[in-house]
Amino acid sequence: MTRPVPPSARGELDELLGVVSELVDRVLAIEQRDQRPEQDTADARPPFCWEELEAEELRETWHELGAWVRWLCERFRIDDIPPCWYLHGDLVEELTGLWLAWLGAYHAGARSEDPVRWLDWLARARARFARRSPRCQINAHKEHGSPLVHGEGDFTAFVDLQAATTIATEV
Fold first, then answer.
1. DSSP-assigned letters across all residues of 94-163
2. Is 87 in contact with 161 (CB distance < 8 Å)?
3. Which domain of life does the UniProt lineage start with (predicted)?
């Protein structure tokens, strides 16, 4: 019979799960390092830094990530990612990493275990999403106690502002 995990131990258990998962990833990588041929990574997107993207690439990348986040939330029925995720730097970075890893796990040159590894990363990220604060709700963004109303138009305006700011600094 399994006993429930007390709330006080939940964080420690999540941390331990993360360490074990990381160790499994490292062991698999070591085992396969010399056994796999060069992979075709044409479909995978290389890692990038948001601050280093030029205006048009920034706009395009935001829209690609936005479409992927909508798909992710629908596909996996995720309700811990607020509609204003793009206003939270921690969520942007977390979702960017998941997106890039997803692209790498599901391209033609990926290994057969890459999708399962990505699903494990998603599970760990979802545990972090669930513990986030502040907790934004639909039409109620919370940042430093000041509620804002947002929607799809707000996201488009945000992307346009980011691109405009980038253009201004390039001149």
1. HHHHHHHHHHHHTSTT--TTHHHHHHHHHHHHHHHHHH-SS--BTTBEEETTEEE---HHHHHHHHHHHH
2. no
3. Bacteria
And the tokens for 47?
């890692």
Residue 126 burial (CB count, 10 A): 15
Q: Are 123 and 75 in contact (CB under 8 A)?
A: no
Q: List the one residue out of 98, 123, 133, 102 whose CA is nearest residue 24.
A: 123
Closest by alpha carbon to 132, among 74, 93, 99? 93
Q: What is the pLDDT of residues 38-92, one digit of tens each?
A: 444 455 688 889 999 999 999 999 999 999 999 999 999 998 888 889 988 889 9
- For residues 63 and 136, what is the distance between their CA atoms, to the nearest angstrom? 21
Measure the N-to-C terminal CA separation of the chain; round to a whole number of Å: 66
Tell me the residue length of the chain. 171
Q: What is the pTM of this model?
A: 0.63
Q: Assign 170 to helix, strand or coil.
A: helix
